[in-house]
Write a structure and sequence with these properties.
The protein has 7 helices and no strands. The protein has 109 residues and is mainly alpha-helical. The longest helix has 19 residues, at 54-72.
Length: 109
């Protein structure tokens, strides 16, 4: 597995796809299929190239989007949880707090 700009070029469609589909649960199998890799090779390649696992990358992107949505102050915490594909507000708040060490409500203050 290569760690190079070429590696990122190969993953760019995946990164774009993830960003455009944060509201749903994107599975590694789906991503691996998109670039014609086996799931094991894809996960290894992704981690070597990006530095974190696909799941952690997706989680991080969701949390960054959550921060943006919170800053807009257009949506309730529950609406943001729904928008980002969380089963409920509680699991969203837990994930947000794990990522940023502060609750969504605390972040808003």
């Amino acid at each position: 597995v290569e760690e190079s700009p070429r590696g990122m070029v190969k993953l760019q469609p995946i990164l774009t796809f993830i960003t455009e589909n944060l509201e749903r649960n994107v599975r590694n199998e789906e991503l691996a299929d998109m670039v014609g890799m086996t799931i094991n090779y894809f996960c290894t390649y992704f981690k070597k190239t990006v530095g974190i696992t696909p799941a952690r990358y997706i989680s991080r992107m969701k949390m960054l989007r959550a921060k943006d949505l919170l800053c807009q102050r257009q949506y309730s915490i529950k609406e943001i949880a729904d928008k980002l594909g969380f089963p409920d507000q509680f699991s969203f708040s837990k994930a947000f707090k794990r990522q940023f060490k502060i609750s969504p409500a605390g972040y808003l203050k």
